[in-house]
Amino acid sequence: MEFLQNLRQNHLTKFWKPVPAVIALGILSAYYFGITGTYWAVTGEFTRWGGHFLQLFGVDVSSWGYYKLMSIEGNIFTRVDGVMIIGMFAGCIVAAFWGNNVKFRMPVNRIRVYQALIGGIIAGFGARLGMGCNLASFFTGIPQFSFHAWVFTAFMMVGVYFGVKVALSPFFQSKIKMQKVSCSKNLPHDEVKVKNFFTLGTIAFILIILYALYLIFIANSPKLGMAALFGASFGLIIAKAQVCFTSAFRDIFTTGRSELAIAIIIGMVVATLGVFTYLNMGAAPKIFWTGPNVVIGGLLFGFGIVIAGGCECGWMYRAVEGQVHFAIVGVGNIIGATLLAFVWDDISPTLATSWPKINLLQSFGNYGGLIANYGLLLLFFIVILVLEKKYLNKSRNR
Description:
Layout: H1 2-12, H2 18-36, H3 43-56, H4 65-70, H5 80-98, H6 110-129, H7 135-139, H8 147-167, H9 191-218, H10 222-240, H11 245-254, H12 259-280, H13 292-308, H14 314-320, H15 324-353, H16 360-364, H17 366-396
Helix pairs in contact: 2-10, 2-12, 3-15, 5-9, 5-10, 5-14, 6-13, 6-15, 8-11, 8-13, 9-10, 11-12, 12-17, 13-15, 14-15
C-alpha cells in the first residue's frame, strides 16, 4: 500500500518533466509504426470524421479524391487510426482526473471563440494540405525520412512567427480589467473530490486496458488492440507532461524558452533510429509529395495553431480538462480538414500530386539518408538555439 501511495503522490498526480516524456513519445511512435504499419497521426482521422458527418446528411463523399486517398471505409471502431484516437482521449481523461485538473471553463470573451474556430479551421486545412500536422508532417514524419516533412516544418516555423505577430496585436488582447486585491486568497482544496477524481481516472485507465485486451484476444484484432494501448500511452504522456507543439515553437518567439522544442528534437532523434531499424526489416515508409502544398500547408498550419492557441494534440487534452475553447479548436480542425477534402480534386494536380515524393533513404542511400536526417536535425537544433539567443539579446537591450 505504501508503494501505491508513493506512486500516486510522486508520479500519477503530478505533472511530468517534458524532456523524458517527449523521448518516451519518440520511442513509442517508432514501435507504433513497427507494430501497426502506420505512424502516429490524428488529422487524417479527423478528416474522415468530417466525411462521415457529411454522409449523415446524404452527401456522397466516396467519389472525392481525398477520401479515396485517405480511405474512408469502416468507422472509428474498425480503423487503426480511429481506435488509436479513442485511446488518446482515454489517456487524456485518465491524466486529467489523476491530476485533479478537470474544471469547466468557458472562453473569457467572444474574440477567443472566433480565434479558436477560425484558427482551428486554418490549421486543419493547412495540416491536410501538407499531408499531416505536427505529427505526420513533423514529429513522426521526419523520422519517416520523407523530405516533405522538412519543408513543412520550415514553413510551419515561418507561419508560427507571423501567427505570433498577429496574436500579440491589440485586437486579440484580452479586454478583461485587472483588479487589485489587498491580500492573497487561499485556494479551496476538497480532498474528497481529489480522491473521487483519482478513482474515476483509475476506472478509465482500467477500462481502456480491458478494451485493448478485448480487441486483441476476443475480437481477434491485435492491431486495433495495440492501437488502443499506444493511443492511451500517447494521450497520457502528452497530458501529464503538457506537451503542446504550438507552445514549443511559439514560446521561442514570445519568451525565448526552448526547453520543449529541444526535447521534441531529441524525441525525433530517438524515433529516427527506431523507424530506420524497422525500414531495414522491410517496413514501408510513409512518403508524400514535396510540392507547393507543403509550403502553403506549413504556413497555414503554423499560423493557424498560434491564432487558435493549440495544435491537433494540445487541444485534445485541454478539451477533456473542461476548457471549452479547445473543444472549439477541435471542431475547427475537423471543418478545415473537411474543406480541404472538398477542394482537393481541383487543387491537388497543381499543388501536390504532380510533384515528386522524396525519400531521403532512396536519394542518399540507407546510411546516407540516415546521416542526412540527423544532419538536418542538428541544423534544426542550432536554429532553435539561435532564435533563443536572438530573443534574449533583444530582451536585454529593451
